[in-house]
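SUBJECT: A protein chain and its fold
Encoding: whole-number codes for local backbone shapes
Chain under study, with its fold:
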Amino acid sequence: MHSQTAVSPSRGAAIVPIEPVDRAPTFRDIFKGLPTDAYAAGEAIFWEGDEAGHIFDVLAGVLRIYKILADGRRAIVGFIYPGDVLGVSFQSRYLFTAEAVTAVKVRRFSRSRFFALVGESPLLRPQLFAILCDEMSAAQDQMLLLGRMSAQERVASFLLAVHRKNGCGGTLELPMSRLDIADYLGLTIETVSRMMTSLGRRGFIAATGRHTIALRRIDALREIAGADDERDGVPRGVVPARRAVWPN
């Protein structure tokens, strides 16, 4: 159930300006001190078509963002992790649904005030540009993955991309279901399961827990995916997305 750890400012209340810091301000400073909203697994933070009133800083947990196609099928367009900013768009309504895969904690900030602050700050504008460029690069990668890769290449690329995002050593967590992975890769759940089993039998991966996988032969996975060492999950010839750096 959605809950808050502190009382949100009343509607129409003035937003306290960013406090001065000894370094260049970052997006993290915008959200500092705001209440934390908690969502249980399966709860939606917002729905496709809702008025885009807020932008979110993800503190904990994993979310899936998806669209419902005209024929009723679900197409997952990405997974959101701690440190990501969710809902940055110049559209007046959200273009997708954001739903918690695990228990999630976020901070929210008024969208109109967010863009006003960015417009006033020459230091924040490049960070917004970096996020928008990241999203464009991710969309290009997804188009290539769905349009040109085999099922085995898609699964290998997905595992490498998750490892690059939140892997620790040779181990990665996959909190999402096989159905989530299938809807993201444009495959059936049976095909995803078959590809995972094949990679396991060949010694490339090994299940180490209900939601954890060890990458036993990461170089072999890179070869399958056609990815370079420092560009896990990104096929050769594609410029990888660059994340905006937020100093601690």
